[in-house]
């Protein structure tokens, strides 16, 4: 019967998607790099490469946390506002409120963690979709940033604080080390710890996870808290690099952060993906901006290219799922 | 059935209809006729094939072989929409209405009346909707949002919807499940009325008294096979039960008599509003207690309540003599209680995860050190379980979505075996699994008992309940209507307690 031939075709298509699942995005990344390298040899200049990674590290640190949230099948739109709010607090402690170095690190991180906790707590215990809760937070903390700063950026950080965003360890920028450190740490957490496996279980099938005795709400709240904290870390990097707590800092970051995760192959439905994909996703976005810049393409085009890639990435994910359902 | 049925009398004919699912023969050469304008009841135990048959008629499933004729023509609908268009409508237990829209709009959903310009003609649509409601002689406001209506009125809306499409055949699957007595009377009046207008009704119900009250003829299915089609008036309830149950209780149940020891679970006056009423029972170490009853009798809800999934309105639970409060599955597991849920795909497994991950899931905290999983231990547990359960998987890291149903169920068993609990709550442990795998699962249940556990098992398959249980609790409408011992239980007795209309002598103690 025709069922047999159908099976064969399905096998081919399925194999393609399994292949895609494993290394598809990496392949795209390599091809894009090679093309840019051929069009403009400056692209492969080590300085340029390091520059690209440094540029993506602020988004990348957040994208690592966002990967965990999206693996749970959830979302957080407030990361950009957290960056602004934690950034202005860091700047405040640097410039206005006594200039204590440690407080200017610890307080912003704690505040950012608190906002993450708030997002997680309200969405789980209040039964509100996280899209709405974090949309609310996005507005609340953008407003709070303006309030604290009284409409003016706060500038002039200490040299020690400047190191976070602008310092180098050997030839490598410190933010890059923070970013890659986050990727490795959370890569290990996802793979090797109970918490990591719980994230995949909840994202894959929340009910089965609950019935297996996992305290689902607790895992979700912790995950939002982690994303909040990492957004705080990004805030420190950004504020340090700009040497200023800016009012519009982090605006629109949520888009790039979510895009990095999705392009990296983590499914918006949850349960599948990981931080290594996100690393590639973030780098791909950075490389495209950088490469188009080098070629002198208008930034407007860059936005359009980025949007197109996001849609294609999600489309691949949908197709993958469709062909897998037996 | 002495007068021969003429060819033109039938409206729907099943001719050697067979439906095979992977590993299961759901329908096996089923042949019978449904006559024009009759109320034709379809009965059988859970899993006898009633739903499958209906789904084939309405195009939800495609038959493997055989033919279905509707008004003389062979039909093979690809989806329920096609069936509806041709005049076959089905009303399921979960009604297919959109709560936020009005009655009128729901009736014409999918075939809105339009004016020449293509816009919806609200006036005409409301008029037509009112006509249909008037025709049915019921009191339903066509402008009301469907979400504000009770189940009975929603059903009326579904019926009106079917009539708006000129349905020749109306299939009703357990229509009275959620209705009060008064509402059932109204429904029956509507059925009689439709019948007088020439509409053919296929009526599925577990409530045998209803079958006798409303149907002209009845078809009995058992294990996917056609048993009989007879005039209802010539039968008694006992005849019907006998036909449903059959006479073959094969020795496929490896029941072992174990030394019954201390009580591990006791439930006192458990109540959950509208779901469970004064449930009392106890479970001892070394025992398998079966819970029988029809779908919707509160069996699954009882397990869920014990497992901390649904809140209780009253009652006490004792584990090993201590009164306990269980507010989540997490609490339950810490007390040594495990639940193997009804739906393995949606509740038992994370299909995206591997065999290893699924088996390890409830045990991870036990085999980890400061949050880090001990992979050696995890692999050890997995290989032990894969061997013990005889799970057929190419490698441990295979995603469970690629395993067969029986193997998936064994993974679910494995994950709870590995967790080493004292009390196992099984909900439909062998649903949809082929006979071979079933027997393996029974042996594994025995192994659990040998290990010192106790099992509470809900099953819709009576032979399984009778074959494996030491004690049987029969539930109906959220109450325990009888407790039988292995020695004095038989299928008729259990069915009577489970269905037990007023005219059956349901014995309860």
UniProtKB/TrEMBL annotation, chain B:
One of its GO terms (cellular component) is plasma membrane. GO terms for molecular function: ATP binding; ATP hydrolysis activity. Keywords: ATP-binding, Cell membrane, Membrane, Nucleotide-binding, Repeat, Sugar transport, Translocase, Transport. Pfam families: ABC_tran (PF00005). It comes from the Bacteria. It is a peripheral membrane protein. InterPro entries: AAA+_ATPase, ABC_carbohydrate_import_ATPase, ABC_transporter-like_ATP-bd, ABC_transporter-like_CS, P-loop_NTPase. Residues 12-248, 258-502 form the ABC transporter domain. It is found in: Cell membrane. This is Ribose import ATP-binding protein RbsA. It comes from Atribacter laminatus. The gene is rbsA_3.
């Amino acid at each position: 019967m025709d069922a047999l031939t159908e099976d064969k075709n399905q096998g081919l298509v399925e194999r393609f998607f399994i292949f895609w699942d494993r290394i598809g995005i990496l392949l795209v990344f390599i091809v894009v790099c090679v093309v840019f390298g051929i069009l403009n040899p400056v692209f492969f200049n080590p300085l340029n490469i390091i520059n690209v990674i440094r540029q993506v590290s602020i988004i990348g640190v957040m994208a690592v946390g966002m990967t965990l949230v999206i693996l749970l099948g959830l979302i957080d739109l407030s990361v950009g506002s957290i960056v602004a709010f934690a950034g202005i607090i860091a700047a405040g402690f640097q410039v206005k409120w006594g200039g204590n170095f440690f407080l200017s690190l610890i307080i912003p991180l704690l505040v950012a963690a608190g906002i993450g906790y708030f997002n997680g707590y309200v969405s789980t215990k209040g039964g509100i979709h996280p899209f709405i809760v974090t949309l609310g937070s996005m507005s609340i903390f953008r407003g709070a940033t303006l309030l604290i700063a009284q409409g003016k950026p706060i500038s002039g950080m200490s040299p020690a604080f400047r190191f976070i965003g602008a310092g180098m360890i050997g030839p490598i920028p410190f933010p890059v080390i923070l970013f890659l450190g986050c990727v490795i740490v959370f890569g290990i957490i996802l793979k090797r710890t109970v918490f990591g496996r719980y994230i995949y279980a909840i994202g894959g099938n929340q009910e089965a996870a609950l019935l297996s005795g996992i305290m689902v709400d607790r895992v979700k709240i912790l995950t939002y808290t982690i994303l909040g904290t990492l957004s705080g870390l990004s805030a420190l990097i950004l504020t340090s690099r700009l040497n200023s707590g800016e009012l519009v800092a982090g605006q629109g970051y949520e888009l790039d952060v979510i895009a990095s995760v999705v392009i990296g192959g983590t499914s918006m439905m949850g349960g599948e993906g990981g931080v290594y994909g996100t690393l590639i996703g973030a780098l791909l976005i950075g490389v495209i901006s950088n490469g188009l810049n080098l070629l002198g393409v208008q930034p407007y085009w860059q936005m359009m290219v980025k949007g197109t890639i996001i849609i294609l990435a999600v489309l691949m994910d949908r197709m993958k799922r469709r062909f897998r359902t037996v | 059935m002495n007068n021969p049925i003429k060819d033109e009398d039938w409206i729907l004919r099943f001719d050697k209809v067979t439906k095979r699912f992977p590993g299961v023969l759901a329908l096996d050469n089923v042949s019978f006729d449904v006559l024009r304008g009759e109320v034709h009841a379809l009965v059988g135990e859970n899993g006898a094939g009633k739903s499958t048959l209906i789904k084939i008629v309405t195009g939800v499933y495609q038959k493997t072989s055989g033919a279905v004729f509707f008004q003389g023509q062979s039909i093979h609908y690809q989806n329920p929409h096609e069936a509806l268009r041709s005049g076959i409508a089905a009303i399921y237990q979960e009604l297919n209405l959109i709560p936020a829209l009005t009655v009128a709009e729901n009736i014409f959903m999918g075939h809105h009346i339009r004016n020449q310009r293509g816009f919806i003609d609200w006036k005409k649509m409301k008029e037509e909707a009112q006509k249909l409601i008037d025709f049915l002689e019921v009191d339903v406001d066509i402008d009301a949002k469907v979400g504000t209506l009770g189940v009975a009125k929603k059903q009326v809306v579904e019926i009106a919807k079917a009539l708006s499409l000129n349905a020749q055949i109306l299939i009703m699957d357990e229509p009275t499940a959620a209705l009060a007595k008064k509402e059932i009377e109204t429904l029956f009046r509507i059925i009689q009325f439709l019948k007088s207008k020439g509409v053919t009704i296929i009526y599925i119900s577990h409530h045998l008294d209803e079958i006798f009250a409303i149907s002209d003829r009845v078809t009995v299915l058992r294990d996917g096979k056609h048993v009989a089609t007879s005039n209802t008036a010539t039968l008694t309830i006992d005849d019907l039960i006998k036909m449903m149950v059959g006479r073959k209780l094969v020795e496929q149940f490896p029941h072992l008599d174990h030394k019954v020891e201390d009580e591990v679970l006791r439930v006192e006056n458990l109540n959950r509003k509208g779901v469970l009423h004064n449930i009392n029972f106890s479970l001892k170490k070394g025992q398998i207690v079966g819970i029988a009853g029809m779908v919707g009798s509160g069996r699954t809800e009882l397990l869920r309540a014990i497992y901390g999934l649904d809140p209780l309105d009253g009652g006490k639970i004792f584990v090993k003599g201590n009164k306990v409060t269980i507010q989540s599955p997490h609490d339950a597991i810490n007390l040594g209680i495990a639940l193997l849920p009804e739906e393995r795909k949606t509740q038992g497994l994370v299909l995206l995860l591997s065999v290893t991950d699924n088996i390890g899931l409830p045990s991870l905290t036990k085999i980890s050190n400061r949050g880090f999983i001990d992979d050696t231990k995890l692999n050890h547990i997995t290989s032990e379980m894969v061997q013990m359960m005889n799970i057929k998987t190419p490698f441990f890291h295979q995603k469970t979505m690629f395993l067969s149903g029986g193997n998936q169920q064994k993974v679910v068993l494995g994950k709870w075996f590995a967790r080493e609990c004292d009390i196992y709550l099984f909900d439909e442990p062998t649903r949809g699994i082929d006979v071979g795998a079933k027997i393996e699962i029974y042996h594994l249940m025995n192994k659990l008992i040998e290990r010192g556990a106790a099992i509470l098992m809900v099953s819709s398959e009576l032979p399984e309940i009778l074959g494996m249980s030491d004690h049987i609790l029969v539930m109906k409408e959220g109450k325990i209507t009888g407790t039988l011992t292995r020695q004095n239980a038989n299928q008729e007795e259990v069915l009577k307690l489970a269905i037990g209309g007023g005219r059956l002598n349901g014995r309860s103690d």
